[in-house]
């Protein structure tokens, strides 16, 4: 598989005579062989080769232009082999990495230092082994475990009894959870409507989003100050900050929509069309979704 | 570097360098250090001029850092934003203005003649002042820079402005039924103020105390305010009350604000409220002094009072709320009506129970709804009219509701 990149670049991945190319103005192949996945941080890239992890970052400079550093360097967890990474969460100046053997490590990318995150999970009470399966780093670091519990690292998040979370997503200052039964919970800052509770209040613990009660959500995404989810019916709901039009709600004048809102897809003649949404992904100021083909709705 | 670079030459580069080393978040520092370094060398070495390509690339990087920092400043609660990111916003602002100036003077044009660019740069600086934090060892850099540049922008004054306020001393005296007048003093001595007002925490109207302020004569002449502040960007609250659904905030230039919201009839109210205008435009500080009474403190606090400007048309309303500190509301021009309640009346005023508004009452003392808020009838309201040259002392936690009856400019001093 080949990877191509276009746009603003602050890593050393693309350069010209030792100078960083700040704008990659056409899709350019990422000059690194064997890539299997690619993660984008604000000022660095993570490149995956199977279970090997590499980073491309601008080195700390003292004001002199010596760029003798390699553009892509391996990230090797201390005392482990290179191919022992299974998940990485991008942070501002650090990456949190889950190893094959379920350890959690924090790598300060500019200081080039490692810290093993002490095991905060402990045992969930029953005999089944519990470990983190997904981590996100927004305003804080949130870890989801294989048993459906979540931690605002290192503190256990207070979750209603018998609720198991199976996915987590987060923006600048909010976090949303997908429960096993398709319910959606949110917590964090609410001032931009990002929690979907039909108010602008903050929430210290995960609170179910009532507006989606009875609707089975299958996939979630969040970024910036907004959230988007897909249901088992192929419907798309968005809510939160709409200053850049990121909610995709043409008829809404408001810059803040604090309640999940069903997206009505239209064709180029502005007619409503039937669409099955497969997947959604939020960026900080935009939203992308993947759908089946657009079909005109039958008139009754 | 040519001499026409006003901004680049007025930056204390080595002090700035210390700030970059010590206070800027690492992921920003790696991008900004070399830009700062190259600019510094160019200024010292007067011949070497950075290439246009380098200037353009550096602008891209600085803009990206500004955007990212802006996101961080706007995430989570403002009071918990790490101050390093506010320093970073200030640093990016400084670098951006230097680069903008360089990009222009690269064609050896006199940059001060380009009014549009100048205004653009001043606006950028104001955003830096509003969102950033003064860098620890060059605290007044941005305000000074903006004041310096402002001199070159000659605002074409098409407004025919005489004095904004017609004198109407006797119009505003009648205390509405059900309200009680508060005590009045004419230039109370320090001792009297301490014994009868400050210690017992009694709201009081103090006359003639600030009669000598230059601001009283100068500021009602809008030409003066425009020459000092016309191009400067200020935050404006839109909507009659901050508790209203459609209330919002906008950044406007002072002259836009004047023309749109103060000098013309407008169906929306615009209010320059609770803004630290005098940190942003220090020249205005020369026109008034901190009242000596502010030297009395409740603890052993020695910090300077927080000074805020309140400027707007007739009809601005601050809904009934309280502040935690001692407050001197000083009237520069125009007239205001203030309604006050004792902190013990809080439960009769029905404060909102949300975090954001728990210092604000749900009752409107001018349109009381006794069915909805029955206990409000038990509250004892005080009323006072504030005229130019007068100070209103509002003790900590006293509820107050403020309406401007004419175009009005007030300065408030908050202290512990």
Description:
The complex is a heterodimer of chains A (300) and B (416). Chain A is built from no helices and 28 strands. With 300 residues, chain A is mainly beta. Chain B folds into two domains: 6-150, no CATH class; 180-415, Cupin (Jelly Rolls). Chain B has helices at residues 6-9, 13-23, 26-44, 52-73, 83-105, 115-131, 141-150, 190-198, 214-218, 222-229, 254-262, 277-280, 346-349; strands at residues 180-181, 183-186, 204-207, 233-238, 248-253, 270-275, 306-312, 317-321, 326-333, 336-341, 382-386, 391-394, 399-404, 408-415. Chain B has a nine-stranded mixed β-sheet with strand order 2-3-12-9-14-7-6-4-5. A five-stranded mixed β-sheet of chain B has the order 1-11-10-13-8, with no helix packed on it. With 416 residues, chain B is of the alpha+beta class. Chain B contains 13 helices and 14 strands. Classes of the chains: A mainly beta (300), B alpha+beta (416). The A-B interface holds A 8, 10, 22-23, 42-43, 57-65, 92-93, 110-111, 139, 172-173, 189, 191, 200-202, 224-225, 284 and B 25-27, 29-31, 33-34, 36-38, 57, 60-61, 64, 68, 71-72, 74-77, 354-356.
Mean pLDDT of chain A equals 89
Largest interface: A-B, 30 and 25 residues
- The number of distinct helices of chain A, counting runs of at least 4 residues, comes to 0
- How does the overall form of chain A come out from the CA principal axes? globular
Q: Give unreliable regions of chain A as ranges.
A: 62-68
| SSE string of chain A | EEEEEEEEEEEEEEEEEEEEEEEEEEEE
CATH superfamily of the largest domain in chain B: Cupin
Structural class of chain A: mainly beta
- Largest sheet features of chain B: 9 strands, mixed
